Amino acid sequence: MKLVTFEREAGCEELGVLRGERVLPLRELGFSYRDMNELIETADRVALARMAEAEGEGLPLADLTLLSPIPRPRQDVLCLGLNYSEHAREAVGYSSETFGQEPIPEPIFFSKRVSFSQGSGAPIPAHRDLTEKLDYENELAVILGRDAKDVPPEQVEDYIFGYTVLNDVSARDVQSRHKQWHFGKSLDGFTPMGPCIVTADEIPFPPRLGIRTFLNGEKRQDSNTGLLIHGIPEIVSTLSRGMTLLAGTIIATGTPKGVLMGMENPRFLQPGDVVRCEIQGIGVLENPIR
Length: 290
Known about the structure:
Layout lengths: L1 E8 L2 E8 L2 E4 L10 H7 L2 H9 L5 E2 L4 E2 L10 E5 L3 H10 L1 H4 L8 E5 L21 E2 L2 E7 L15 E8 L2 E2 H6 L4 H4 L7 E7 L10 E6 L2 E7 L7 H11 L7 E3 L21 E6 L3 E6 L2
Parallel strand pairs: 6-15
Antiparallel strand pairs: 1-2, 1-5, 1-12, 2-3, 3-4, 6-7, 8-11, 9-10, 9-15, 10-12, 13-14, 13-16, 16-17
């Protein structure tokens, strides 16, 4: 099942089930969740099954505005750094002072502040007053459906609500200058997500999905989420040993090779550019730079 947050009127957010080119509004199916956070926290298997099996004409997708599936995450997004081998090499080659040295023996965790996440089609602000080295990072994002504490790796699958596409937009000069990654990853508009949440039952675990990124129509990233150095069972289990991960927690699992900083004489993102992030089975997240 694909769950979306959408507007048919500006400023009026609704939840729905995406079926091809149509959306079934949940309130017309008898559900009254305030937002996606509440749905994730409170919907049980019976309710989710009713949503998945619901029938109806729905609304044409072309008449709606899809938002990020979780426009206002309740906590910072948790992120994995350097979690694909080839990306780790290109990052270290760009700045060993910022990114350390290979190999990467332990997961690198950091957080990404997000007060509002925009959806596909919405602009990414260029923040030209702060950065001249704006970059993209296409990532599979994992969304937890239950509070997780001291979860063994073999039980992690039971805690996954679903998956979405997340662009971990990064200001590389800010990221390097501050000797830590939080500020350069957390400027307003740096966490677009979408187009939907695909529930975990739709994707074999652990996910092995094609992941590709296009910049102005030119392919820049082409990999598979099965190549994660530290997989989802290890990520969730490791974090849950020391902290309670609440239902609705979003974990961005890392990006593959092909970001701009890894290229020779890179041309970083400029206003007018369009970044298209695709993950197999989930969909397309496309945003212009402004």
